[in-house]
Each structure stands twice: as structure tokens, then as C-alpha cells.
């Protein structure tokens, strides 16, 4: 009964199947976490989405920014971007079933001391607080207010957590933290522009997981999203986006010991 986590797949279905074969994943007893961004840019987003839905009895995903982009495009609240590979999903006969399943997926999942989120958590958020904020977003995504939220979710503000937020500001801020964040400043304000390597980071910024004494430090946060960071494992975080979509690798880790790391080449 192994528990694995795999980084951002982004439509790299062939590589995902190779990786599951390499780790000898048992669909009858093992559990698989996917760090979000199931779709987009890769060649087989439809196949990945169908796989995750078909096996959701043992496969758990969280929503990533590309998954949310798919929902926004499908509902007419965003334009497809150059490089998007969402058309097969939007033309599929089972599109509505797949999209209804996708919008019901959470932003955060927890199993004992492991917590998975696509991008990260703010240092001053403990797990209970983060779960509460994540559930607020999920409740809206699964409600009749879906279109309202998809139409208004885009934007970089607010950049800081504070008690005077409107409902929309709170929802958007939570979404930006959990699906877009990479770096923050010393005041825990978001900088959503920087996407590069840690060595190139401006001096006033730091990775979200490098803040001192984070409130979640009695858990291990499993995340993806930051392909320039690559595989990153320390006492309290496991970063798994190793750039599959950019032709590098797709990575799995066995969460039982954090030592058994398996990768497959992801060149297309």
C-alpha cells in the first residue's frame, strides 16, 4: 500500500504511463497524488484528464493554474493562449463530464502529515487555516456561482493577506497563493512576476518555503508549479515539478520515506 506523488503532468500522458509502470503502481492498493496542472501545453491533455477521472478511487489531484485556465476557457471567460493544447478536451464528447469532475477537485489535500497543494502556502497559514480557505474556493467552484468566479478570478491583487478583504479578494488571493505563488518578500507579500531559478532571484524576495518558522512546519508540503526550481526536498517541503513539459523529467516520490525517487525522460 504505497503512497506516491508525481509532479506536474501537463498533458504528458505517455510519460505518466511510463512512470507508473516504472514504479509498478498497483491500482488496487496504492495511492497516487498528482500536484495539479494535469493539462495544457503537452500533447495528450485529454488522455490525462480521462485517466485521473477514471481512477479517482486511488488517484487524487489538486487544481493547478492550467486546470483553472481550462475551466475559464471552456466557460467563455478566458481566451485560449498561444501554446495551449486544450482543443481536444473542448471538442470531446465527454467534455461536460470531465469539466464537472475537474471543477470539483480541491485546492488542498491532506493525509496525516503530508499536505499537497499546487504552488504553496503562506508561512503564517497553519494547515487548518489553509484548508478553510481552500474549501471556500472549492465551494464556489462547485456552486451556481461558478461563472461569476471564473469571470473575476484573474488578477494579481491583493498581494497581502489582511482582514479587510472582500469575498472576491479572499477567493482570488487564496487561488493565487495555492496555484500561482513561487516567491514572497519579508512581509509575506506575493510577487507573481518572478518565475526563474533561485540563483536569479532579487535580493528582496525569497521562496515561499524559506520563511522562518512557518506555521505549517509540523507537516510536509508537497507541491509542483515551479519548474525552474526542479526537484526540491528538505525537512518540510517536497517540490516535484521537474519540467516534464519542457522535455526534462517527470518525477515520482514514495511519500513513505522521501528517499525512493523515480524519474522518466520526458522528451516528446
Question: Your description of this structure?
Answer:
This protein has 268 residues and is an alpha/beta fold. It has a domain at 3-129 and 210-265: Metallo-dependent phosphatases (Purple Acid Phosphatase, chain A, domain 2). 29% of the residues lie in helices and 18% in strands. The protein has a five-stranded mixed β-sheet with strand order 3-2-1-12-13, covered by helices on one side. A five-stranded mixed β-sheet has the order 4-5-9-11-10, covered by helices on one side. The model has no long low-confidence stretch (mean pLDDT 97).
CATH topology of the domain at 3-129 and 210-265: Purple Acid Phosphatase, chain A, domain 2
Spatial extent as radius of gyration: 17 Å
Can you write the helix and strand succession as a string? EHEHEHHHEEHHHEEEEEEEE
Top CATH class of the domain at 3-129 and 210-265? Alpha Beta
What's the architecture of the domain at 3-129 and 210-265 in CATH terms?
4-Layer Sandwich
- The CATH superfamily of the domain at 3-129 and 210-265 is identified as Metallo-dependent phosphatases
Shape: globular
- Assess the beta-strand content as a share of residues: 15-25%
Broad structural category? alpha/beta
Output the strand order for the largest sheet. Answer: 3-2-1-12-13
Model regions low in confidence, pLDDT < 50 over at least 5 residues: none
Family: Belongs to the Ap4A hydrolase family.
GO molecular function, one term: bis(5'-nucleosyl)-tetraphosphatase (symmetrical) activity
Protein name: bis(5'-nucleosyl)-tetraphosphatase (symmetrical)
EC number: 3.6.1.41
